[in-house]
Amino acid sequence: MAFLYRRGPQDFFQIGPVNEIRETQYGNAQGAHIYYPGVSTCTTITLLLTDGTALGMHLTKLDLATDVDAIVTQVNAVRGGTAVSSMYAVGVLRCRDADGWMGVARYRWPVQLSTFNTAFGRAGGDIVQGFIQKEGSGANDYRVLVGGGGVSWYARPQGTHTWNTLDLETL
To answer: Can you give the chain as a three-state secondary structure string?
Structure first.
């Protein structure tokens, strides 16, 4: 199920039972995978929960910190009391010209990892696996397959058809 965030009287709009999480959206894995299309100046955060399910967020560099805070609150509401076993950060994590959420101290690189960790009930220094996409390198699509208590990541340049394994590093 994916939800779009828009500032206003009704902040979240249900998109439906999809596994595609676009800009300024959050959702959960449908059919054991999440698809993040067109990540060019965006950051994706994916949570693997202890029950084997996954939740994800797709944030643009122009989202405001209050937008990100609202999405984090909703993700926490969806996961309820289920603990986060692993967190993954993929995309542009270090935006030099951040006018949006990355320009706020708690979301600047590398503090953002600790901020997200603690927001999702983890210790600030818990390990985050990820991939840092260089800003201006073009748009990539990312796919996360969930199963067997873990995840597998794949990437492709946007508009192409071949998926390649994405090697993550400890951030």
So the answer is: CEEEECCCCCCEEEEECCCECCCCEEEECECCEEEEEEECCCEEEEEEECCCCEEEEEECCCCCHHHHHHHHHHHHHHHCCCCEEEEEEEECCCCCCCCCHHHCHHHCCCHHHHHHHHHCCCCCCCCEEEEECCCCCCCEEEEEEEECCEEEEEEEECCCCCCEECCCEEC
CB contact set of 110 (below 8 Å; sequence gap of 6+): 171
Q: What does the pLDDT read at residue 2?
A: 58
What's the pLDDT tens digit per position in 118-166?
999 999 999 999 999 987 778 999 999 998 878 999 999 998 999 999 9
Distance CA 169, CA 127 (A): 10
Q: What is the pLDDT of residue 100?
A: 86
**Which domains does the chain carry?**
2-166 (3.30.1330)
The token pair that represents 81 in the structure block: 């009391």
